[in-house]
Design goal:
InterPro entries: Pre-rRNA_process_TSR2. This protein is mainly α. Helix content is 49%, strand content 5%. The chain has a two-stranded antiparallel sheet. The chain has a two-stranded antiparallel sheet with strand order 3-4. The protein starts with a strand and ends in an 8-residue tail after the last strand.
Length: 197
Amino acid sequence: MSCSFVESTNNTPLTFANEKQQARFELGICMVIYNWSNLTTAVQNQWGGGESSAKRDWLVSQVVELFEDVYVDARDIETRLLDIMEDEFTVWIEDGSGALIAESVIEIYNQCQKGDFATVDRLFTEYQEKTAKGEVKVLVNVENANPSDDESSDEEEGVPALVDEREDMDVDMDDTPAGPVIDDDGFELVQKKGGRK
């Protein structure tokens, strides 16, 4: 079975110089990984401990980081996904889903390279709809990263920038659910359930 890959033609990193293009690509990676049922189960059951959601965001940043090189193939992505699942969540994936996620990431890169963001937009819209219906129990927490949380390395890894850069896109961010609200003492405040209208 052949392995999909992307390679720089001028020996420069695969990251996009165009900020909008790069932001959409990173959003695409985020949505593909957030839709990975094995990871969703691990996060919802906190198999990675209390920081399971933060570890998922870190996993996204680790896949994004692969594209700072001049060459990446689906096997590289799959290896990183499976290693992190094993190391951080103590989950061994043997159903081939890691390879499918990796192929999806390569496909999204190729689409973004052509300026085609239809798949990314669809995945993001579907995620918003699932969240509004309450089907997504653990919300994306890249927009409201808590800098006072010493255990979370999301901001250092660049994951919160996914939402910051999306402000320049055509995507309506007003319906994006807010993450947990933390008071001055570090306690999470209980929020009303249901989507905002």
